[in-house]
């Protein structure tokens, strides 16, 4: 059972990682990839916590979930502000956020 769980967790992590690395069109998909990678990481912490009968992995996963929720809220607020000013959320036009 542990092998199948770890395989699904690592596949979820690497799917999120590939979504972040290979997507260059939409910032929303990049944010979803980050969330998928963090979810796979959290599931690995919980799996190893149950396997080794230790509570620290579950506590650490809880703190990662709170940071991920804050990251999503701030990221979506930035995306909404960027959409209001520019009219699109393409990554290729995000270099206009830097002021010279």
Structural description of this entry:
The chain has helices at 2-22, 27-51, 56-86. Helices cover 77% and strands 0% of the residues. It is elongated. The protein has a single domain (2-97), classed as Orthogonal Bundle (Helix Hairpins). The protein has 100 residues and is mainly alpha-helical. Helix 1 packs antiparallel against helix 2 and helix 2 (27-51) runs antiparallel to helix 3 (56-86). It has 3 helices and no strands.
CATH topology call: Helix Hairpins
Arithmetic mean pLDDT: 88
* Number of spatially distinct domains: 1
CATH architecture annotation name:
Orthogonal Bundle
Percent in strands: under 5%
Total DSSP helices? 3
Provide the structure class. mainly alpha
| Percent in helix | over 70%
Largest sheet: none
Q: What gross morphology would you assign?
A: elongated
Short description:
With 100 residues, this protein is mostly helical.
Secondary structure topology:
Elements: H1 2-22, H2 27-51, H3 56-86
Helix pairs in contact: 1-2, 2-3
Key descriptive features of the protein:
77% helix, single chain, Helix Hairpins, 3 helices, elongated, 100 residues, mainly alpha
